[in-house]
Amino acid sequence: MGLSAESIGKILKRCPNIISYRVEEKLRHTAEYFHSMGVNVAVLLHRCPQTFGLSIEANLKPMTEFFLGRGYSIEEVGIMISRYGALYTFSLAENLIPKWEFFLTMDYSKEELVKFPQYFGYSLEERTKPSPIGPKTTHFWGPVFNWSIPIAAFVDTKKPPEMISGNMTAVMCVYSAMFMRFAWMVQPRNLHLLVCHVSNETVQLYQLSRWIKARGSLQQEKEEQAKGQ
């Protein structure tokens, strides 16, 4: 497999029992099974030697069939194992199935699990189920502090239009338009941030219209004065 003596030492530290596995009856068959899925067996053995202690019939094949039955190709399953060697060490009934069912409630495509199979290693109660836009996240506090922008803009509506900066107001319109799109496209969608920037966009557009009208009135006054002279 091309493993160095140092790598073999780390494997034995992580899984001392591996030395008791029969090469022909256990290790070779497991290695061939993963190799048929496109997995780099040497890397998998180094990262998660515990996987080689699992039964092909009782553990590995049911796991593979689980993912194949949910629309993944054998190549995609191999990629998931390569990226997260511990994936097949989890219980199918107690871990993968409940987390898969919860995953379906989120607005993600199933390809995301190919990119990040480590999802199955997170605790549902402590890491996964807590809201990703809840009060313990920047997805919550970011919009909270962003509300200072539309509030300040609303206060400015009471001021004379001559005090409005057309350039700055236009920049704020573009800024909020970009963040409105971000809030809608990000997964999960951040509706709090979206409402914040919709509010700011509305106020900024109103301010921009006041500035344009004021500029038009000022220009008209100058033209009338020029005619009077």
Automatic annotation (TrEMBL):
- Keywords, ordered alphabetically: Membrane, Mitochondrion, Mitochondrion inner membrane, Transcription, Transcription regulation, Transcription termination, Transit peptide, Transmembrane, Transmembrane helix, Transport
Q: Which GO terms describe its cellular component?
A: mitochondrial inner membrane
Q: Name one Pfam family in it.
A: MPC
Q: Which GO terms describe its biological process?
A: DNA-templated transcription termination; pyruvate import into mitochondria
The way it spans or sits in the membrane comes to: Multi-pass membrane protein
Known Gene3D superfamilies for this protein?
A: Transcription termination factor 3, mitochondrial
SMART domains from the UniProt entry: Mterf
- GO molecular function: any one? nucleic acid binding
State the compartments where it is located: Mitochondrion inner membrane
Q: Which family does it belong to?
A: Belongs to the mTERF family.
Which PANTHER family does this UniProt record tie to the protein? UPF0041 BRAIN PROTEIN 44-RELATED
Q: What is this protein called?
A: Mitochondrial pyruvate carrier
Give the originating organism: Hevea brasiliensis
Name the lineage: Eukaryota, Viridiplantae, Streptophyta, Embryophyta, Tracheophyta
